Amino acid sequence: MNGRLLDLLVEPVLWLIASGSGAILAALFIKKYFKIGEEAKPFILGIGMFALFFTIARTIETIRRYFGIGSYYDIIDTNFGITGLNLGFRFTYYIISYTGIAIFYFVFERNVIKTGLKKNTRYILTIFSLAEIFFTCMLYFTGAAVWAMTGVIVLFFVIAFVPIYFFLYLAKTALSREQKIAWLIVTVGFVLFVLGVMGDLPEAYMITQYIPAEFIHYGTPLLQAGGSILMGSGFAIIYKNV
Question: pTM for this structure?
Answer without folding.
Answer: 0.91
